[in-house]
Design goal:
The structure is a homodimer. Helices cover about 45% and strands about 15% of the residues of chain A. With about 400 residues, the first copy, chain A, is α/β, with parallel strands linked by helices. Chain A folds into two domains: about 150 residues, Glucose-6-phosphate isomerase like protein, domain 1 (Rossmann fold), CATH 3.40.50.10490; about 190 residues, Glucose-6-phosphate isomerase like protein, domain 1 (Rossmann fold). In chain A, the strands form two sheets. Chain A has a five-stranded parallel sheet, sandwiched between helices. In chain A, strand 3, helix 5 and strand 4 form a beta-alpha-beta unit. Chain A is globular. Chains A and B meet through helix 4, helix 5, helix 6, helix 10 and strand 7 of A and helix 4, helix 5, helix 6, helix 10 and strand 7 of B.
Chain lengths: ~400, ~400
């Protein structure tokens, strides 16, 4: 007797783990922690410009932006800019803040055919000189954009073919601009290695990621929205990066052509206590909530010990360090949600604000995304759904 | 025979309209378009500082931020800052960009007891002098913060008691800071008046708002997520404002204690074509999508007529104005979604980027929110769900 099936069913955790180990041999992001960064660090020493302009969209900029936002207070005095939208007023506004005579342009496009990036590159080529002295290119090694770079003698870094855009932050895509602004990229990779080792050797992260992935998948029809509630403004970029990673990787047709979807939402505490929190507390029970806290902000600024007329009732917060206040706010919100009992909720606490800890968080989320993709039996790494719009656009423009 | 009921049922459009007309007599935001702005404009003439610092969170800042982001290229040379989070690194970073000796602080809190605002006010009082020469207050006329302002002889503007924070952008909360940075506040109010007149006299906006509200409510169990997809980076602030308005107003228990929830998501085109769009296209059908386009960006910057080696295939976009490119991108995405047939989608087109048109959009969304609140029989204007966390926090801190 034989039995074959093509229907979707949640596999065992062990089977998922074996599948992940199999894809590790051909999905490129798993190898990035172990890359040699010598060439990047050598190149960085030659960069003299003050304004570093990343020209890229989606996976070509979001990860870099996330790490930059988190660590900007530790960066050197170079200024990082991002050009991505085709909104003409946005282009004007952003370019007006760049000293074009003291700028390095980093053109990033995996395929080399991103229309937003090419059109802004053309605009830059018109308003200033763009040549090998102020422009480098990060792309696949056989793209049209690579031909452009070779022809112009521009320095190139490559995105491996098997590394997708939204999984590329720890490739040259992120490492080159981040190293230039003073981020310790080896420490970023150390964070990734720590998670990689822990997960694949079934240590701490294995249980955490597998259990979380399984819970989300098992309850996906009830809780179709996954909220990340980050208690630090510095995680604003991380939230955006998460939204792309989660939305674009997991919003797919599965093997039975059933539409899967895990809707990511990123909010910030305490600001969004005054916005989205009410919906979480009293709204429909369709959300899981993951809190992210920073254990130590390494900043001792405290609320001063002064009494303001009329506001004396607030003297109880005097002498309280802000870093404690924000964490108490987080804990109070967590407790309020936990008291409701019917909102699935977990808490990730980052030890401190540095490369190592943010990389652990991001690499862990990449692994979690891969695990969930395996659970729901989709291709986590493509994005076929956006092609239709691109084809229609080309038809419109080429008439 | 008598028949009474307490169960939830979708009422007729006409009944909803009558209910809205009834609440118009006691809900304050409906009256704001007709306020006298003389006092604000007179005050603005006296402001000499270059740095305008809004100290407020949630409804005290989001609306102002939305209008500022949309019109920043038309503002005068004053610089607007927002202090809201208790994140110590965020506070440092933002204050470092303010010339404290040339700053006007605008303390905004409806209740006057917002812990984030009070703690940052204390910090400011410690690092600089905060007095009637550089500080004004916007609050309810009997709040503790009002006492503080009176005691210090500070200029005060008032938030009417019956205007909720997230509906307060067209009160002094928004108008005072916006007028200072050169926004035409009368033209903002003209936009509101236009929508108010149209809706309440059952002209154009009446059908639009009523039909949309009814659709969203009738399909709320199937489509529990409402995405706004704005095709201009300038609408980033509007998206955030919408998220608060929608989430905090409509995430409530209804008259049968059933948890209602309409989850707002705000994304930007074309950037999020490279992020969230895949999820919309192939993910679970749990979303409605509202596109917002700008008819005329009033900017003629075009892609230059140059050919880049290797990238000659893109010469077809040469001479195309960016404002046309972004709108063609919007139209292509809309067409791709419409072709799928099973994603409810509508398109709002703003004529141009000015006070009048943004106010129409925002006031229209306030009305839509009120209408949906009536349909689902909730209190649109309170936020009881966030109180639990506040009480826990106070206990922790006073512990």
């Amino acid at each position: 007797m034989q039995y074959t099936k093509n229907f979707y069913q949640i596999k065992s955790t062990e089977e998922i783990f074996e599948n992940i180990k199999l894809e590790k041999t051909h999905i490129g992001y798993y190898s990035l922690p172990y890359q040699d960064t010598t060439e990047i660090k050598e190149f960085v020493k030659t960069v003299e410009q003050k304004h570093i302009v990343v020209l890229g969209i989606g996976g070509s900029s979001l990860g870099t932006y996330a790490i930059h936002k988190f660590l900007q207070h530790k960066e050197n005095d170079k200024k990082l800019h991002f050009l991505e939208s085709t909104d003409p007023l946005d282009i004007h506004c952003k370019i007006s803040k760049i000293d074009l005579n003291d700028a390095l342009f980093i053109i990033i496009s995996k395929s080399g055919t991103t229309i937003e990036t090419i059109s802004i590159l053309k605009h830059l080529s018109f308003v200033t000189t763009v040549d090998k002295n102020n422009c480098i290119v990060i792309t696949e090694d056989d793209s049209k954009l690579n031909d452009f770079a070779v022809h112009n003698g521009m320095k190139r870094f490559f995105i491996p073919k098997n590394v997708g855009g939204r999984f590329s932050v720890f490739s040259a895509v992120g490492l080159v601009p981040l190293a230039i602004i003073g981020i310790d990229i080896d420490n970023l990779l150390n964070g990734c290695k720590e998670v990689d080792d822990s997960f694949f050797n079934k240590k701490e992260f294995y249980d955490e990621i597998m259990q979380k992935g399984r819970f989300i998948v098992e309850n996906k029809n009830r809780f179709n929205i996954n909220v990340i509630f980050s208690y630090s403004s510095l995680l604003e970029g991380f939230n955006k990066w998460y939204i792309q990673l989660w939305g674009e990787s997991l919003g797919k047709l599965n093997i039975n052509m059933t539409k899967q979807g895990f809707t990511p939402i990123g909010i910030l505490g305490p600001v969004d206590q005054h916005s989205f929190l009410q919906l979480i507390m009293e709204g429909k029970r369709d959300k899981t909530v993951t809190f992210i806290k920073v254990e130590d902000f390494e900043d001792d600024i405290a609320i001063p010990d002064i009494s303001l007329f009329g506001l004396e009732e607030f003297d109880y917060i005097n002498k309280l360090p802000f870093k404690q206040l924000i964490n108490e706010q987080a804990d109070a919100t967590i407790e309020a949600i936990e008291n409701l009992k019917d909102i699935p909720c977990d808490v990730i606490t980052i030890d401190r604000i540095d490369e190592y800890n943010l990389a652990k968080l991001m690499y862990g989320y990449q692994l979690l995304t891969s695990v969930i993709g395996k659970f729901v039996q989709i291709n986590t790494y493509d994005q076929p759904g956006v092609e239709a719009g691109k084809i229609i656009l080309k038809e419109k423009l080429q008439g």
